[in-house]
Fold 2Fe-2S iron-sulfur cluster binding domain-containing protein.
Amino acid sequence: MTSMTVNGKPMRFLMDPDTPLLWALRDAANLTGTKYGCGEGDCGACMVHVDGEALRSCLITISEAEGRFITTIEGLSRDRSHPVQQALVAQQAIQCGYCTPGIAMAASALLAKTAAPSEAEIKAAIPNLCRCGVYPRLVRAIERAGRVARRAETISAAPAPGIDARDAAREVPAISAPATRD
């Protein structure tokens, strides 16, 4: 049994110790904000914080994460009030959104260490691949998030927190597929 703290809560995983942390988080802990992209550590979609450092969870086994503190996108800010999340939305640096959780995790780790990173530091710290190509907006968003974190700037409104849990649990009538033409 492997134990670690995930988003501030102790967790035990009854899985093979060689299981990548990515799959323990997604499949066992149901923390699906951490995305599977390549499984090779190249894309960064699976980025999480491990003891405050941004690491690719597809490259870390749960035995390597034993006793460590893991933060996923769900633990960064449930209401999307983290400066990185606000700035990504405000700068329109999100397109399809698949890479966004990994980018937010890499950016928040950078800002925790460097309050006002340069463009070169941002580019070096964000190894994530974005198929939509929003890189110039990502740099501006991370610069802005740094200003917000330093209280040098504010963003007028946080993004909406999403679907209320009560609404998500409601039964929704099934939608039938339209009739096909022969």
In short: The longest strand covers residues 2-6. Residues 135-149 form the longest helix (15 residues).
